[in-house]
Sequence to fold (122 residues):
Amino acid sequence: MAAATDKLVILVTNGIDHELSSVAFTIANGGLTAGLKVSIFLTSAAIDLVRRRGQRMTHVPPLEPLLALIESFQSRGGVVWACTPCVQSRGYEQADLLDGIIITGASVMHAEIKEGAATLSF
Fold:
């Protein structure tokens, strides 16, 4: 039996063109409600989810609009990491992303996993 953990890391690769982006943030918010410490690592097309105004293009009813999901997640203590090479390959800089987004390599995600975090991927 696996040891209990209060951490959850969600890896998101889908971007603004896919409903799984909204599903990922909905589940992340649910994790916070359940008392988990939730972090999201964005890679590939998912970087556009946190590009200023990018998330305004996504709304998957009956889920909340993506921007509202992201804002709720961050305001409740959720952490959003954006893959450094993925940000750079799109020509983005910190100023192009929503406030509070941390541009970093995958090592932060790996550290959480090594400490026992559960993982999900979208």
